[in-house]
């Protein structure tokens, strides 16, 4: 599970497109802002979630978010994950994208599971 953080235009959907390509997904990947969840089939099923319009973790769970997170045959990529932070599993990988003054991007990766690997 990858939790994506970053403001408008930081590159969250562009990153999602790259993940999809890496999974062998040939469908066009677009931002699921209005649909909330888009699903794609590849080597693994990709659940591309945009939490921007959600009111919080309770709404995420009501929409079936728990089932998506527990899909052993898939991966969840959640844009605007900070809006549903309480719903994220402890082992979530958090990728935060920031825009620098020169319009380049920087990515910061964190998460308990990643920290355990590095320890």
List the helices and strands and how they pair.
Layout: E1 2-5, H1 12-22, E2 37-40, E3 45-50, H2 57-62, H3 65-69, E4 74-79, E5 93-99, E6 105-110, H4 112-118
Parallel strand pairs: 1-4, 1-5, 3-4
Antiparallel strand pairs: 2-3, 5-6
Please, could you describe this protein's structure?
By secondary structure, this protein is an alpha/beta fold. Helix content is 24%, strand content 28%. The protein starts with a strand and ends with a helix. The protein has one domain (2-118): P-loop containing nucleotide triphosphate hydrolases (Rossmann fold, 3-Layer(aba) Sandwich), CATH 3.40.50.300. The chain has helices at 12-22, 57-62, 65-69, 112-118, and strands spanning 2-5, 37-40, 45-50, 74-79, 93-99, 105-110.
What's the short version?
The chain is α/β, with parallel strands linked by helices. 24% of the residues lie in helices and 28% in strands.
Keywords for this entry:
6-stranded mixed β-sheet; 6 strands; 119 residues; 24% helix; Rossmann fold
Spatial shape: globular
Given the helix and strand composition, which structural class is it? Answer: alpha/beta
Strand order of the largest sheet: 2-3-4-1-5-6
Could you name the CATH homologous superfamily? Answer: P-loop containing nucleotide triphosphate hydrolases
Span of the ends, CA to CA = 20 Å
Please tell me how large the radius of gyration is.
14 Å
The CATH C-level name is Alpha Beta
Q: The biggest beta sheet, please?
A: 6 strands, mixed
Question: What is the overall number of helices?
Answer: 4
